[in-house]
Amino acid sequence: MYEFWLISAPGDKTCAQTWESLNNLTARQNNLSTNYKFQIPDLKVGTLDVLVGLSDDLGKLDDYVERVTRKLAHYLGEVLENQRENLRENLKAGGVDLVTYLSRFQWDLAKYPIKQSLRNIAEIISKQVSQVESDLKTKSNAYNSLKGNLQNLERKATGSLLTRNLADIVKKTDFVLDSEYLTTLLVVIPKNNNQDWQIKYETLTDMVVPRSSKVLFDDGDSLLVSVTLFKRVADEFKHHCRECKFSVRDFTYNEEEMIAGKNELSKLEADKKKQFGPLVKWLKINFGECFAAWIHVKALRVFVESVLRYGLPVNFQAMLLHPHKKAQRRLREELNKHYSHLDSAALAGNDPAVDIPGLNMGQHEYYAYVFYKINLDMLDSNARF
Questions:
Q1: Looking at residue 14, what is its pLDDT?
Q2: Over the stretch 14-72, which tens digit does the pLDDT of each residue have?
């Protein structure tokens, strides 16, 4: 569904005939693919040496821009909390969905002036995407830190009685406060050990106030209980609790600190909400920008490889094929037969041993015609980077 093939073939008598021939073969006659003309403007050719070096550099730039584009999509998914369908709706370029942008591709003359050399256009794209990647790192670190701090506080508010924040559980009346001699401890005990606790707690040390233990909270697995005793035996009491597998919480009732903790949680929640909207907007805009840059790199690669393959004057037709389901193998066979006259090395199809200097450098697949695969599934974790 998301796989497209971007190819080019030399003009026969005219480029229009090249298009008609391909369309008749794959779309009308065999129903193998849906095809679109891929419009590439009249770019500056430059020298052969420049084209050969640029071919390799564009391969690296292609991988880099795709990687950053997918990073943006992946992080947008994280921020949207991985709602896959919601994510797809937000992944657009030029105000339209990715398939529409690709199938109706128009070169952006304002961003990438065709009067510039091919090398300069590639450098413009590289600098643009590099800046986006740097900004993404800064923004994601800040948001992730905020989100992590909030999650830690939320875990403390809802987690196990051994670790959770007790501010919403206990009350002032649960404690003996401002006493010179007495203190109240909070103890977590397994629920099925409650009877054992009731039998033992008064005798774990001397100076425990009889019948002072109260159940303050039950989370289903454990109980939070209070016990009042003399301060001087508190350390000994804690020691004997550990021996009996009763866990004493390190907690001091302090209203100001408890209010501050609640305020911190509220503040982090408000900060996250405040940052969420602008961050999603930034990610959507820059994903679209990087995706568009990526397709422009594909156009540059097609142009450069076509000139290297088919020579001057520039005379080739770039075409975008959307293979029909389960038709990729037949489509490849038909294309190989149809264009076999272009290169004898490709008569046998894809030959990994083929190594032609200056042609398809960095490509693992070589065919008689210029070929690039484009995977538009931004949620595909197996996509090639």
A1: 87
A2: 899 999 999 999 987 789 999 999 999 999 998 889 999 999 999 999 999 999 999 99
Return the beta strands (E) in the chain as ranges.
3-10, 33-37, 92-93, 96-97, 182-190, 214-218, 222-230, 247-249, 316-323, 370-375
pLDDT reported for residue 354 = 44
Residue 284 C-alpha from the chain's centroid: 12
| Tokens of residue 10, six digits | 């030399």
Q: Which residues contact 86 (CB under 8 A, 6 or more apart)?
A: 80
d(CA 85, CA 95): 18
Cα–Cα distance for residue pair 190/184, rounded to 1 Å: 20
**In terms of Cα–Cα distance, which of 1, 20, 30 is closest to 332?**
30
What pLDDT, on the 0 to 100 scale, is given for residue 382? 56
Domains of the chain are 3-150+270-347+370-375 (1.20.1460.10), 172-251 (3.30.70.100)
For the chain, which ranges sit under pLDDT 70? 82-85, 344-364, 381-385
Cβ contact 8:299 at 8 Å? no
Strand 182-190 versus strand 92-93 pairing type: unpaired
| Closest-CA residue to 38 (of 62, 76, 80, 7) | 7
Q: Which residues contact 323 (CB under 8 A, 6 or more apart)?
A: 3, 4, 5, 32, 33, 331
Structure tokens at 21: 């021939």
Q: How many CB atoms lie within 10 A of CB 362?
A: 13
CA angle 31, 37, 39 (to 5 degrees): 165
DSSP string, 238-264: HHHHHHTT-EEE-----HHHHHHHHHH
Residue 263: per-residue pLDDT: 80
Q: Output the six-digit token pair for 59.
A: 């391969």
Residue 246 · residue 163 · CB < 8 Å:
no
Res 343: pLDDT? 75
Q: Smallest Cα–Cα separation from 91: which of 284, 281, 282? A: 284
Structure tokens, 114: 């065709």
Q: What is the pLDDT of residue 255?
A: 82
Structure-block tokens of residue 333: 């066979």
| Direct distance between the N- and C-terminal alpha carbons of the chain, in angstroms, rounded to an integer | 19
Handedness of CA 24, 26, 30, 32 (dihedral sign): negative
pLDDT at res. 351: 46
